[in-house]
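Do me a favour: review this protein, sequence plus structure tokens, and tell me how the chain folds. Record follows.
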Amino acid sequence: IDGQFPNYRQLLPEQFEYEVPLPREELVDVVRRVSLMAQRNSPLRLRFAEGELTVSAITQDVGEARESLPAPFTGDALEIGFKAAPQSRDLRERLESVYRDQLEYDKLASLYVADARGRSDSKSKAARLREAGKLYLDELSDPERGAGVLREARAADPEDLELLVELVDMLVASGELKPAEDELTASIDALEHDAVRTDLVARRGAIRARLGESDGALADFEDAIAGGLDDLRGPLADLLGKMAMHAAGRGDAGQWRQYRLRIAQIRLETGDIEDARNVLTELLKTDSKDKATL
């Protein structure tokens, strides 16, 4: 090529006001993750403060990503911005492969979450968040964080009832029984009486039993059995046994008799004639003329 090549060196400063050595791999990992949120020409911002570098990106209507790492920086805070690389499926897939091969599941889950927040399609976003939730539960044993991302997935796709069940199971795994009950109640109230609703009612009954909400659990189990879930008759009998003991403890003979009679009915329905006979015999000993027992 004819002509003189431009003297680009004159554009580069000979001295720099700040020099900050940083671990290359750690910085690159942070920049790659945060860059997933730098869309629509949004800048990638690096803010240097005393002992710390914060990398951030914000895209309107998409979300924000922010990560910090230690940096040997002193002096007044400094912030600079760069145009990040465009969203790259190839880059994302390579990062996923690296994180999975190195068992860095926390980074992989964070990558999934950042990727999900950059998606506009609600089902695609929810699916990606579900992947992150599964990692938090299965690989990181952190159902609390898993529940957090599944809540976000549920907000993106509120009509997906399978996602609701996953969220409820995650909340139960993290010990958040009351929020799990509330999630189920909100959905049950909006559903018609069908097999899906019946299954959700059964799940709520089991959670209410664990919460000590015996009356609510009893109503849910009876509702679910009426809807065709006969397998719940065993758990219902166990619940009624506990309720009968509590009734006896407070001297409520009428409630005790009612619960024990229902247990006898369940034993008859399940073919356990001997146990049913024993319960009825016990009831007759306390009142030999009770018509319901007879």
